[in-house]
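Section: Multi-chain targets

For targets with more than one molecule, the full set of components is provided together so that the structure can be written out for the assembly as a whole rather than chain by chain. Components appear in the order listed by the source. The example entry contains two components.
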Amino acid sequence: QQPVQSPQAVILREGEDAVINCSSSKALYSVHWYRQKHGEAPVFLMILLKGGEQKGHDKISASFNEKKQQSSLYLTASQLSYSGTYFCGKTQGGSEKLVFGKGTKLTVNP
Amino acid sequence: DAGITQSPRHKVTETGTPVTLRCHQTENHRYMYWYRQDPGHGLRLIHYSYGVKDTDKGEVSDGYSVSRSKTEDFLLTLESATSSQTSVYFCAISEPNRYNEQFFGPGTRLTVL
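Its structure, encoded as tokens over all components, is:
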């Protein structure tokens, strides 16, 4: 089952903050975040593991609430380069298979 | 740059014809994946491989087969293409470590008429 992302789309002005949420109806082992610019491949941003460990982009932060089976991506002081579609992906039970959400389109305007 | 290439990058074909897409990596990663991306659906896993000749199905595997005879190459075959298989196909690679972050190839845009 795909994780559910919200919002589906958000428009910001440069310098504003945004939060993108990713929730699952089943227990999560890890949550992955990727960003995709139009016409390009998805690019890895962050991974959050059950238990609190994480690895990823040093200018983007995220949280992983195991009880709520939810992750949030925090984009602060947004830049024009942050525009794109953000995908979360989940794994269950340590599987190498990722199931992605449908994405959140972020537009940052000057 | 994770050293992943896909070929062809664009292809137009007709319904009923066989199509093979190739993913090639230069970094000896063990895991390889094929996804399709369609508007409103995000990325969906078709098949993946966890080693030479070791493959498994993803969530949308019907109508697709894969082969991996060498570490560096992962082939996706549409035996008889249908219009519903018009999509952008991405290959990805990863290592079976604690994080398993995936790195994606540039994609192949396939149109089935």
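Chain A touches chain B at residues 2, 30, 32, 40-44, 47, 49, 53, 55, 87, 89, 91, 96-103 (CB under 8 Å).
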